[in-house]
Amino acid sequence: MSSGIQQIHDVGAKALGWLYEHREGFRLEADPSPEAGVLDRFKPLGELALIGKVIFREGVAGSQQSSLAHKLLDHAWHELLDSGARLLEGQRREPLSPVPLEVYVPFRELGYRQPDLESAIRLNHRLASWAALEVLPVRRLGLSAIERRFEVEPSVPETAALAHTWLARRPEPWTVEGHIGYDITHTVFHLTDWGEKPAGLPTDIAEYLALWLPVWLDDWLDLKRWDLLGELLVVDACLPEPTLDPAAWAGFAQAQQPDGAMPVVGGMPEGDEEAVFDLVYHPTLVAAFASALAMSRALSDLSTTPAPA
Q: Any idea where the DUF6895 domain is (predicted)?
């Protein structure tokens, strides 16, 4: 295994190890405040399921990493979500919220099921208020994609939802700031079903990204914005011809802590364990995600490279 591929593998293996060791950090509050965004705490578990699905789908993790991912998802579903009962409770508390659906679908695709939750979602999905929910264009695209994956008719067709996103309009690339960067990455995630279907990326968008992504990678590497850099490395792996940018990957790997945690920006934050977890779990999930896709693309390229004469 080349040093570059080994580096990418090590980032993912270390990130997954940290997530498993800190799995209790994903635990939901037993009695959250009514004023708090109750369902927001569910989102990290949905992200965890998404990353687990990517790891299993790409098939590039070693046996130890695959075993850790299985145990981590079993813990999340059975212990933290009470085999889906917590999602059902959340859906009943906020019947028009799409969050239980967004969290549930990746678990469902991995074989975890909660029939009562499915019935509640299908019932609420019939309400006009469900489709009337006002969200940012990239979120609407994501909701249309998750509805399709749940096998209900999308409230807005994905092509129509895409047309309103920043990336579909391909505006001036130097206007990209933090939140626009995340709009770009998530548009790609939704169009490709989180890297599963690279062909879902329209040709004009793929060409635009191929032209400007190297510049954005350099920018966010210089700024040490590791969370967004990781998401852009995922975007790179979703392109028809990924670069697997060596400099970006080297900087990303150097930012990772020895225990596998990935800071959001700059160095590791300080504080109590719970506060630090809340700040670094997402970039660490992204590190595992980027590693799985980049490893898969790198090994695929190796298998299709003609042997020297």
A: 13-292
